[in-house]
Design a protein that fits this description.
Layout lengths: L4 E4 L7 H13 L4 E4 L4 H4 L9 H11 L4 E5 L7 H6 L26 H18 L5 E5 L12 H15 L2 H7 L27 H29 L4 E6 L8 H6 L3 E6 L9 H13 L5 E7 L15 H11 L2 E7 L24 H16 L12 E4 L2 H14 L10 H12 L4 E4 L11 E4 L7 H12 L3 E4 L22 H4 L1 E19 L9 E13 L3 E6 L8 E8 L2 E6 L1 E3 L1 H13 L13 E7 L4 E7 L5 E4 L5 E3 L5 E2 L2 E4 L4 E6 L2
Helix pairs in contact: 5-8, 8-13, 10-14, 14-17
Bound molecules: beta-D-galactopyranose.
Length: 669
C-alpha cells in the first residue's frame, strides 16, 4: 500500500445517501485509508448476539471502490446500553465508591469478567467477518486507553492476587514495603485494600503498586482483544491510539504486543502550542517500539472551538509534515465531517456540519499531492537519534505521588518537568532524541544519555548505566537519581547511592526551595567552554566532590560556594550530575558544549520556532525544515548542500521558510 493518508470516518452518523459523495470527495483529496467503527457497538450488535454487519460491509465496499481501505476500531470503548442494563456492575467504581455514568463512553472496568467476555465476542464476530476482506488492513483496539482505576470487588480481588504473585508471602510484602510504619503489617491477603484518595497519608510503596496494578489491568484487557484477533489473522496489523505524554499507563507495556503505535495528535489542545512538548509527544510515540508509528487522529478543525482553536491556514499541512518528520508512516485526520449531534458537536473535522469542502479540505488535498512526490524518498527510512532520555513510567508515578506531599520540591505540578528541561534544550538546538526504558533497553549506541531524576533505581538499571559510562558514554543525571529502590523505599546508602562512584560524588545534604526561591549556579569555564549563570529551583543538593570536578557552584542560597553540578571521568566515559532543577538554559549550554566537542550533531542550526529533523535510510537522508511561526524564517545551510524535493532545486546557502512553511530536503553527500 502507498503511504497511508486518510481520515476517521463515521458513516453511521450520516444518511446512507451521502456516503458515495463522501467517498468521492475523499478520493479527490488523495485519501487511501479510513478508520471505521470504533464506537459502533450498539449498531453492530444492537441486542445480545445479534450482529448487523450489512451497513459496515456496504460502507467498506463503497469506499474501496474509490481506492480507500480501512482500519477497523474494536468498538469496546463505548458499551452498548443492553450490556449496561443487564450487567450494571461492568461500570467502574471510583475511589469514593461512585459508579461511572451509564450513558457515555470509557465507563467500564477492565477486570470485569462479563465485560471482558462480551468484548471478546464482539471482537471475534468482527474478525470473522473481516479477516479475509482485502480492504481491511488493520485493527485499532478500543480507543485511547486511560489508566482510570476501578475499586470494584473484582479489582480488589485481582489486586490481592497480583500482589501475591509478585511478593509470594505476606512477610516479604510487609518487609519490603515498610508496612511496620503506622502498624500496617498484614496477616491475611484479604486484609489488603487498594489505597483510596487522598493518597498522601498512605504507604508510598503500596500506592505505587496500585498504580502498577491499574496499568497492568488495562494492558491485560487490551491483550485479551489482541489474542482474539491474532487467533484468526496475521495479515492485518494491530494498533492502539496513544496520547503522547499521557502518563497514567505504562506505554512501553501497552505497546509491546502491538504491531505499531498510533498517536492522536491535537497540537492546539489547551491552545498553548508549546513546541517542545509537542515534539516530545512524537518522540515518545516513536520510541515505544523504536519504529515508525501512525497518526490515527490529527487535528483538522477546532476542537470545542475554545479548547483547541481552528488551525490557521498552513497549520494542518505543517503538523502533517512534522509528524512524518519525527517518524510517522501514516496520517489519519480527525475527523471527516463534524457531527451534528452527540457530546462532540463542536469537535470539528475537515468538513464542517454542512459537509461542504472548504479551505481545510483544500489544504489536505494539496498536501496529499505533495506527499506523493516525497514519500518514495522516505521508504524504509527511520529517525536515528544520537541522544537518549530515560523514560520509566514507574518513576513518573513515584514522583507524581511526591508532588502533593513535597509540594515545593517539584515544579509545575508535572512529573514531566525535569525531562522537559533537558528535552527543551535539545529540541531548541535541533538535536533529535529517543526515549529509552533502561530496565530492558541497552543504551550503548547513544552518544549521550540524559537521566532526568530517575529516583527509582535497581540492579538492572545500575548495570546498564554503569557499563554505558565505562564504555565511553556521556551520562547526565538530575536530582534524586538513585534515591529510592524499585519498591519506592528510600535507600539506606549515602546518595546518590549505587552510582556514587560513577558520578564521583557524595551528597552531603539537600533542601527544598519553597515557592519562588531560586539559587543561582555558575558554571565553571574549564569543562563547559561557556561560563554562565543559571537559576535552579525547588530543590538544591550540596555535592561533595570525591573524584569528580565541579561543573557549577552555587552563587546564592544556603549552599553558596558549594558544588552544585559535577563531572566525572569514569572508565572511558563521563558522568555529569546536576544537584538542582536547573532551568533549561543550563542544559542548552551543556548541549552546546557537547556539540562543540563533536559528541553530538544538530540536524540544522537553530532559530526560534524552527524545527529540523532527519530521516535516514541506507543510501539517503531526508531533512525536514519546519516553521511553526507566522513570520518567515531563514537559516544557514552551514556549508551543506540539499535538494529541495518539491522544486528539485539545489539549496546550498540558506533555507528560507514562509509562515508555517515546510521544506523537505535531500541531503547531498
Ligand atoms: C480523541 C478521541 C476521539 C475524539 C477526539 C475529539 O481524544 O480519541 O474519539 O473524542 O478526541 O477531539
Amino acid at each position: 500500500m502507498s503511504f497511508p493518508y486518510g481520515v476517521d470516518y463515521y458513516p453511521e452518523h450520516w444518511p446512507e445517501k451521502r456516503w458515495l459523495k463522501d467517498a468521492e470527495l475523499m478520493n479527490k483529496a488523495g485519501f487511501n485509508i479510513v478508520r471505521l467503527a470504533e464506537f459502533a457497538w450498539s449498531k453492530l450488535e444492537p441486542r445480545r448476539g445479534e450482529y448487523h454487519f450489512d451497513w459496515l460491509d456496504k460502507a467498506i465496499e463503497m469506499l474501496s471502490a474509490k481506492g480507500i481501505k480501512a482500519v477497523l476500531g474494536t468498538p469496546t470503548a463505548a458499551p452498548p446500553p443492553w450490556i449496561v442494563k443487564s450487567h450494571p456492575d461492568v461500570l467502574r467504581i471510583d475511589g469514593y465508591g461512585r459508579r461511572a455514568a451509564e450513558a457515555t463512553r470509557k465507563n467500564y472496568c477492565p477486570n470485569n469478567p462479563v465485560y471482558i467476555e462480551f468484548s471478546k465476542r464482539i471482537v471475534e464476530a468482527m474478525v470473522l467477518q473481516y479477516k479475509s476482506n482485502p480492504n481491511i488492513v488493520g485493527w485499532q483496539i478500543d480507543n485511547e486507553f486511560m489508566g482510570d482505576p476501578c475499586y470494584c470487588n473484582n479489582c480488589i480481588e485481582a489486586y490481592r492476587k497480583w500482589l501475591k504473585a509478585k511478593y509470594g508471602s505476606l512477610e516479604r510484602l510487609n518487609e519490603e514495603c515498610g508496612l511496620i510504619f503506622w502498624g500496617q503489617q498484614y496477616s491475611d491477603w484479604d486484609e489488603i485494600f487498594p489505597p483510596r484518595p487522598p493518597l498522601t497519608m498512605q504507604n508510598p510503596s503500596l500506592n505505587l503498586e496500585w498504580r502498577r496494578f491499574t496499568s497492568d489491568s488495562w494492558v491485560k484487557y487490551q491483550q485479551e482483544q489482541v489474542d482474539v484477533i491474532r487467533k484468526h489473522t496475521s495479515r492485518q496489523f494491530i494498533t492502539h491510539n496513544f496520547m503522547g505524554m499521557y502518563k497514567e499507563l505504562d506505554y512501553f507495556k501497552l505497546a509491546e504486543n502491538l504491531d505499531h503505535v498510533s498517536f492522536d495528535y491535537y497540537p492546539k489542545w489547551g491552545a498553548q502550542m508549546d513546541l517542545a512538548p509537542l515534539a516530545m509527544c512524537h518522540d515518545i510515540m516513536r520510541s515505544l517500539k523504536k519504529r515508525p508509528y501512525w497518526i490515527m487522529e490529527l487535528q483538522s478543525g477546532a476542537v470545542v472551538t475554545s479548547q483547541a482553536p481552528i488551525p490557521l491556514p498552513g497549520q494542518i499541512r505543517l503538523w502533517t509534515y512534522q509528524s512524518i518528520a519525527r517518524g510517522a508512516d501514516g496520517i489519519v485526520y480527525f475527523r471527516w465531517r463534524t457531527c451534528r449531534f452527540g457530546a462532540e458537536e463542536y469537535w470539528h473535522g475537515i468538513l464542517d456540519h454542512d459537509g461542504v469542502p472548504r479551505r481545510r479540505y483544500a489544504e489536505v488535498k494539496k498536501t496529499s499531492e505533495e506527499l506523493r512526490r516525497i514519500t518514495p524518498y522516505l521508504e524504509r527510512s527511520i529517525v536515528k537519534p544520537q541522544v537518549a532520555i530515560t523514560l520509566v513510567y514507574d518513576n513518573i508515578w513515584a514522583w507524581d505521588m511526591e508532588v502533593p506531599r513535597g509540594d515545593k520540591n517539584y515544579y509545575g505540578e508535572s512529573s514531566w518537568g525535569p525531562t522537559l528541561d533537558c528535552y527543551g534544550a535539545l529540541y531548541s538546538r535541533n538535536v533529535m532524541v529517543d526515549f529509552v526504558e533502561p530496565t530492558f533497553e541497552n543504551v550503548e549506541h547513544y552518544k549521550a544519555v540524559f537521566v532526568p531524576s530517575l529516583m527509582l533505581m535497581d540492579k538492572r538499571v545500575e548495570k546498564n548505566l554503569r557499563s554505558y559510562v565505562e564504555k565511553g558514554g556521556i551520562l547526565i543525571a538530575t536530582p534524586r537519581t538513585g534515591a529510592k529502590n524499585w519498591n519506592n523505599v528510600i535507600i539506606e546508602d549515602t546518595l546518590p547511592g549505587c552510582l556514587s562512584d560513577v558520578f564521583g560524588i557524595e551528597i552531603e545534604e539537600y533542601t527544598g526551595l519553597p515557592g519562588s526561591e531560586r539559587v543561582n549556579l555558575e558554571t565553571v569555564g574549564t569543562e563547559l567552554t561557556v561560563q554562565n549563570v543559571h537559576a535552579g529551583r525547588n530543590w538544591a543538593e550540596h555535592l561533595v566532590l570525591k573524584d569528580a570536578n565541579a561543573l557549577a557552584y552555587y552563587q546564592t542560597g544556603s549552599y553558596k560556594s558549594k558544588a552544585c553540578a559535577s563531572m566525572n571521568k569514569f572508565g572511558k566515559g563521563v558522568a555529569v550530575y546536576v544537584g538542582t532543577f536547573a532551568e533549561k538554559s543550563f542544559y542548552e549550554d551543556l548541549v552546546d558544549w557537547l556539540t562543540k566537542k563533536g559528541s553530538i550533531k544538530p540536524v540544522l542550526p537553530c532559530a526560534e520556532g524552527f524545527e529540523a529533523t532527519e530521516r535516514i535510510n541506507s543510501d539517503s537522508s531526508v531533512v525536514f525544515a519546519l516553521n511553526h511561526t507566522q513570520n518567515s524564517i531563514s537559516v544557514k545551510c552551514s556549508g551543506e548542500k540539499f535538494k529541495d524535493l518539491s522544486t528539485g532545486k539545489e539549496v546550498n546557502e540558506r533555507i528560507n521558510l514562509a509562515s508555517f512553511g515546510v521544506k523537505v530536503l535531500l541531503r547531498q553527500k
